[in-house]
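Q: How would the structure tokens look for this protein?
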Amino acid sequence: MKTILPCLLVLAISVSLSDASCFFMECKPGMSDGVTVGCLDSEGKLHEFGSRWRTDDCNDCSSFRHGISCCSSYATPVDYDKEKCESIFNKETCSYKVLEKDDHSKECPVHSWVA
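A: Here is the predicted structure in token form.
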């Protein structure tokens, strides 16, 4: 327990210093035959300790004894011509494309992304 709190503090600081979109949920114990085997997510679904999965909202999550950690799995375009182009998110591929507003067959150059 003494090592968990410093690790969480470092994680919290590094997340706030980065542009990544991450969050942490305390473990709501998931039981099987009277034994805690994992954590329940916000929808009440059981995720065994050590498991990894991708949510419908394109977050990559991991289950640990102390909780569930999730981060966005995609990069967001931030430096492109917003007057001429628009960013379009594809939930199937969990990715953005930046296309010309008047012609979606043409991609626009992106100079920087935030992950």
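Residues 4-17 form the longest helix (14 residues).

The CA atoms of residues 16 and 67 lie 19 Å apart.

Upvote if useful.
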